[in-house]
Each structure stands twice: as C-alpha cells, then as structure tokens.
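Hey,
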Amino acid sequence: MNKLHIHILSIFSFICLSCQQQTPKSQIEQTAVDFCEAFYNFNYPVAEEWSTPSSLSYLSFLASNIQQNHLDQLKTQGAAKASIITASEIPPDSEMATVICQIKNAFIINPINGKAERFSSLQDTLQLIKEGNKWLVRKDIPLQNGKQNHD
C-alpha cells in the first residue's frame, strides 16, 4: 500500500469510529458521573439537568441549605471526582438501571444542623430511569423507612 491508501484508510476508520452511537451502558455511566460530580460539588442547577422531576424538590432543598462557608470549604478542599464502580447490565428495552459510583473528595452538608463533613471517598448507589432517549438519576428525599419514592 502506498501512503495515499494508508491515509484514506485512516480517515475512513476515524470517521466510522467517531460516528458510532454510545451504548446504553456508556450513556448511563456518563450520566451517573456527570450527576455525581455536579451534586457533590454543590452545582445543583447542573445536577437538575440529569435528574428526574421527582428529584427536583430534594435538590432545591439541599441548595437552600448551602451557606458561603460551605462554598469556601469546597473551594479549599478541591472538587469532588466521580468514577464508576459497577453498572447494571441493560437489556435493550430496559428503562431502569443501577450504577454504583465512587466519589473522591466528597463534602456533605447535614441539612438538619448545617454542619459539613468531608469524606476522602464514599460510594453512592444511583437509580436511573430512561425518559424518552435520556437517562436521568432519581435522587429523592430519603424517607424514614429508607425507601425511595417511585416516579
């Protein structure tokens, strides 16, 4: 093969690979990471973009409890970073998924007493629901019995 053929083959391969759609599992994992990084960095408006409608009241409640000293502490400690530990296998027609994320450098505010606590690492199990062509995280207000509300 000459250089022209190799160059054309390289371009063709690049185009084919970049036109592939994300698999449902990669979409779910990306949604989970995007949500966690927004949520644990107190960027609730961005977290809302990745949340089910039933989650919005909980995120609004959390946002209303943030004080300047919390933002200052977050800025001092640095941003939280999320990664995937496991994600459930998704059949093609499934509309629900579970993803377990690891969040490093997490900062959590207790909304009852306003105290903040830093965790070097924690796990968060997320429930995702498919609405239309988009996967969304369900992060409802935790109930006393530990069960979540259903969408």
